[in-house]
């Protein structure tokens, strides 16, 4: 029987070859924009099938590698051997089937460790030699036992070796009312002056920018301090390396390395809950770094007080500094993000109505918003079709349906009455005054557009009216929107209120 995820995959494309498609850099190798769009679709399906927590922990970190045109083998990379083995054992068949359905070019899937993962120089325990003291320190983020090689003097390799995404900087972070506090706090944490608070705790739902700010913080800190040593990792990676050190009887070395960093950045801290030994080590590390005036920042999808299973002393440390909440992006910020993203594309003509549509309908998180725009532009470029509202509705069905909030007829009636300053009872009354009938017809129209209710069901919510009355109202408002700018403006305003 086919995997349940198959229903979410895009139809396989015929007549496409790796050499003929536009190439873009992604993950550990090169892949084309079409594969990038396929991966976005596959991820949407896996998120639904596996649940948000499993998806975030194991599938979200996957990076696309290169597709071999001869063998049809696509490389998928994960950050650690532990996570790569886990995904291989549990999801290899599911991923292979999903890719075969999504793309005719992919015949095999190979899962491994990201080759871009940089290993760190060995940090021996004991008194450093004079040469070691005089040598400039590199930006580092791991605990592996390997030897560093000399890099270029321009410092670019230093930042790259920190495991920080070069695209995730303060310059590329778009601010709005809901995230400006967190952004300012992150910039203050990265500044030359000692921070007024430590640690910084960024709290936000998935895809709202907390990981972006952690990376930006690391970049800024490295830029203002030559040779700064930064440890950026997920809570999952912290636990994996802790367990490895414990099994290899190298805990003293682990502690020494970890506490030698100038900045500690830990993402998805909610995944450390319930791990008593790892929590204790993180607690001692926080205390040691704070005592030396070093900087710490954490990110999670919930507030510290909502982290179930966290040892009380660790909970106290996480919440002792500043907890900066990132609110979901409102429509204005979503528009700014789309416009900022469009500035990076050349020869991309995206009409204003498409931008407004995406900003209005993809409201769940910023990552999906940007992913939807990328997918739309990639599809248009690869097929030669112009970007249009119809194309957006056809190609982004999965994203749009996932973001569509359940709006009730009661909510519509209440919003329309507030907008036109009517009493709620007028929606079901028999009055036929124009000042009452037209808002009632608008509410019927919105009920048909925004809810799955049938015409008879809508009629019953409006005082038991016949379905033909609802059909007449819907057709009338549709016609008025094309001829009357004021009516179209009223409906657009109501749509924004109901969908925001």
TrEMBL record:
Keywords per UniProt: ATP-binding, Cytoplasm, DNA replication, DNA-binding, Lipid-binding, Nucleotide-binding
Could you tell me which residue ranges the AAA+ ATPase domain spans? 196-344
Region Disordered: start-end pairs: 1-25
> Where is the Chromosomal replication initiator DnaA C-terminal domain positioned along the sequence?
408-477
Q: Does the keyword DNA damage apply?
A: no
Q: How does it assemble?
A: Oligomerizes as a right-handed, spiral filament on DNA at oriC.
Family label: Belongs to the DnaA family.
What this protein is reported to do is described as:
Plays an essential role in the initiation and regulation of chromosomal replication. ATP-DnaA binds to the origin of replication (oriC) to initiate formation of the DNA replication initiation complex once per cell cycle. Binds the DnaA box (a 9 base pair repeat at the origin) and separates the double-stranded (ds)DNA. Forms a right-handed helical filament on oriC DNA; dsDNA binds to the exterior of the filament while single-stranded (ss)DNA is stabiized in the filament's interior.
Instruction: Supply the name of the protein.
Output: Chromosomal replication initiator protein DnaA
**Protein species of origin:** Croceicoccus esteveae
The organism's taxonomy opens as: Bacteria, Pseudomonadati, Pseudomonadota, Alphaproteobacteria, Sphingomonadales
What gene does this protein come from?
Answer: dnaA
């Amino acid at each position: 029987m086919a995997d349940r995820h198959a229903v979410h995959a895009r139809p396989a494309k015929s007549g496409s070859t790796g050499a003929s498609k536009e190439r873009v850099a992604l993950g550990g190798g090169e892949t084309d924009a079409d594969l990038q769009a396929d991966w976005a679709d596959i991820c949407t399906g896996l998120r639904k099938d596996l649940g948000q927590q499993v998806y975030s922990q194991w599938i979200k970190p996957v990076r696309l590698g290169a597709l071999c045109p001869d063998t049809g083998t696509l490389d998928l990379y994960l950050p650690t051997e532990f996570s790569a083995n886990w995904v291989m054992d549990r999801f290899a068949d599911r991923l292979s089937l999903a890719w075969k359905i999504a793309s005719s070019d992919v015949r095999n899937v190979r899962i491994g460790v990201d080759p871009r993962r940089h290993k760190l120089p060995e940090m021996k325990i004991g008194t450093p030699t004079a040469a070691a003291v005089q040598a400039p320190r590199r930006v580092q983020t791991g605990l592996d036992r390997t030897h560093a090689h000399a890099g270029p003097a321009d410092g670019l390799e230093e930042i790259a070796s920190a495991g920080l995404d070069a695209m995730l900087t303060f310059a590329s972070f778009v601010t709005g009312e809901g995230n400006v506090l967190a952004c300012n706090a992150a910039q203050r944490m990265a500044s030359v002056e000692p921070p007024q608070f430590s640690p910084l705790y960024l709290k936000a739902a998935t895809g709202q920018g907390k990981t972006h700010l952690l990376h930006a913080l690391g970049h800024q800190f490295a830029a203002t301090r030559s040779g700064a040593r930064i440890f950026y990792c997920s809570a999952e990676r912290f636990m994996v390396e802790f367990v490895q050190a414990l099994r290899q009887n190298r805990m003293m070395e682990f502690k020494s390395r970890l506490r030698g960093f100038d900045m500690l950045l830990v993402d998805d801290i909610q995944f450390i809950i319930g791990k008593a030994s790892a929590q204790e080590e993180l607690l001692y590390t926080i205390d040691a770094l704070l005592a030396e005036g070093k900087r710490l920042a954490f990110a999670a999808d919930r507030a510290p007080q909502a982290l179930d299973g966290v040892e009380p002393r660790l909970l106290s440390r996480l919440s002792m500094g500043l907890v900066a909440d990132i609110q979901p992006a409102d429509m204005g910020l979503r528009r700014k993000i789309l416009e900022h993203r469009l500035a990076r594309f050349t020869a991309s003509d995206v009409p204003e109505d498409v931008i407004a549509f995406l900003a209005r309908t993809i409201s769940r998180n910023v990552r999906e918003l940007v992913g939807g725009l990328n997918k739309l532009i990639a599809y248009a470029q690869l097929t030669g079709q112009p970007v249009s509202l119809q194309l957006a509705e056809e190609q982004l069905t999965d994203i749009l349906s996932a973001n569509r909030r359940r709006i009730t007829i009661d909510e519509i009636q209440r919003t329309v009455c507030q907008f036109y300053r009517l009493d709620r009872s007028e929606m079901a009354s028999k009055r036929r005054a124009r000042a009452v009938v037209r808002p009632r017809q608008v509410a019927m129209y919105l009920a048909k557009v925004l809810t799955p209710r049938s015409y008879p069901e809508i009629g019953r919510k409006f005082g038991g009216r016949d379905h033909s009355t609802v059909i007449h109202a819907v057709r009338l408002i549709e016609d008025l929107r094309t001829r009357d700018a004021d009516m179209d403006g009223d409906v657009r305003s109501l749509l924004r209120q109901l969908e925001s």
